[in-house]
């Protein structure tokens, strides 16, 4: 069996740019664009296939590709036998129910017995079943938002980002049924040699993601507040503390997570830190 990983990516759409960027940041080079159907990496044993996103779970299940990047919405909707091996954090969107703006809304039960147009019949069907609401689902493949206007349905269930498409079609969002992001999916039970390549790729992806979620921080602190400040900056192991040329002062270097960044910066300043520099990290290897 060949030990080249075959990876399916969306050819062109809302997943493409971030998918290409991710591999670039992982140091994996390949050509894309200008109608290419596939491309072999010049520096990693991988071959990339450029496909419509809806086809990716099926190709991964059938073994045409070993891995693929798709929206979780598409992975769940297509219900193919693929494994989610990593969440990628981009192409975030939500699948919501929307109704004509002039219509009252008191809750999901308002949709009982109504027609709902969607490209996601499985996701919507599961949601309605869970909530004990029985409605008629009309599957349509595109331009779902025009369905109420042309009398095809009383409500729709579609991907919403800014809400401007809904607005321009006289609709209002009433309930979110699913939140999605890009995921890396794999064919279950890959051969050992391919699994090793997947592990290598995952290690790189995690290092890139960790770097994005953290910042390198350098600051000056009076020695009297070092204990408080270093407690706020645990870093990867512990912060680096070196003396400054100015008596009684030290320089502190550490790593700070994006999530509690502003809270911590305020506490660090309050403790007496000065000259705080915050620097992006390119890769972070645990
Ligand atoms: P294709 O031609 O490959 O079938 P498509 O038109 O079906 O493409 P896109 O609109 O490119 O699909 O969306 C691909 C995926 O990106 C969606 O399935 C969803 O997971 C995510 N997505 C959709 N809309 C947005 C958005 N506004 N912002 C971020 N991500 C989105
Ligand atoms: Zn699609």
Walk me through what this model shows:
The protein is of the alpha/beta class. The protein folds into 3 domains: 5-90 and 181-190, D-Maltodextrin-Binding Protein, domain 2, CATH 3.40.190.10; 93-179, Periplasmic binding protein-like II (D-Maltodextrin-Binding Protein, domain 2), CATH 3.40.190.10; 214-280, Alpha-Beta Plaits (2-Layer Sandwich). The chain has helices at residues 16-25, 56-62, 72-78, 121-131, 164-168, 192-212, 226-232, 261-270, and strands at residues 5-10, 38-40, 46-51, 67-71, 83-87, 93-100, 115-118, 136-139, 155-160, 171-180, 182-186, 214-222, 240-243, 249-257, 274-280. The strands form 3 sheets. A 6-stranded mixed β-sheet has the order 2-3-1-4-11-5, with helices on both faces. The longest helix is centred in the last third of the chain and has 21 residues, at 192-212. The mean pLDDT is 95.
CATH superfamily descriptor of the largest domain:
Periplasmic binding protein-like II
Apparent shape: flat
Which value, in Å, is the CA radius of gyration? 25 Å
Distinct bound molecules: adenosine-5'-triphosphate, zinc ion
> Could you estimate the helical fraction of the residues in percent?
25-40%
CATH class of the largest domain: Alpha Beta
Query: How many helical elements?
Result: 8
- Which fold name is given in CATH as the topology of the largest domain? D-Maltodextrin-Binding Protein, domain 2
Structural class: alpha/beta
Number of strands: 15
- Number of spatially distinct domains: 3
Strand order of the largest sheet: 2-3-1-4-11-5
Residue windows where pLDDT falls under 50 for at least 5 positions:
none
Q: Main β-sheet, in a few words?
A: 6 strands, mixed
The whole-number mean of residue pLDDT values reads 95
CATH architecture of the largest domain: 3-Layer(aba) Sandwich
Alpha-carbon distance between the two ends = 32 Å
Order of helices and strands: EHEEHEHEEEHEEHEEHEHEEHE
Strand content: 25-35%
